[in-house]
Amino acid sequence: EDQVTQSPEALRLQEGESSSLNCSYTVSGLRGLFWYRQDPGKGPEFLFTLYSAGEEKEKERLKATLTKKESFLHITAPKPEDSATYLCAVQASGTYKYIFGTGTRLKVLA
Amino acid sequence: SQTIHQWPATLVQPVGSPLSLECTVEGTSNPNLYWYRQAAGRGLQLLFYSVGIGQISSEVPQNLSASRPQDRQFILSSKKLLLSDSGFYLCAWSVQGGGGADGYTFGSGTRLTVV
Questions:
Q1: pLDDT for the residue numbered B73
Q2: Mean pLDDT of chain B
Q3: Yes or no, beta carbons of A31 and B99 under 8 Å apart
Q4: Contact yes or no for A91 and B98 at CB 8 A
């Protein structure tokens, strides 16, 4: 069964304190792994797509990496505006749907 | 550019009442359309998806139904709401094929509370 597990469930960081969020997955043939940011009461906002092990993507203070079993979202020198829930999802080959994890709630303190 | 509209933003409905949530996409044609539900502490759960007009696939047996009367319109309905239907409902679209480099694009969501 395709599955996505994110850890930790919640993370509190001081402004400037770098850290990483983890997304472990099992899928029958990975078509893509996706990272989203979700603010309270809003729909998820697309961040990155990763397709194969070894691939990396960067956007501002965020960097996503992918291995055959997990993905990391590295946050460098975070700011309070980076506070949000970060969602990971996988899409299996031959399917339309994404399997989402439950997310990591990030709080960055000034 | 493509935009997705979802309404209403919030809804409070009594148990047993009907439901209709609407989603429309602009700036693209023949999109894949999706309805997800997000419950507290749980991941997004796919409810329905559609690859074309009148083509609806259901992922989870439930008290809800979906319809796609036009290419860029997706409607989520219920004849009689249950308490367990409460949640945050999200509409999304993607290019044909299901993903693409930009993944899904989500609407702003509808917070449904059944009382």
A1: 96
A2: 90
A3: yes
A4: yes
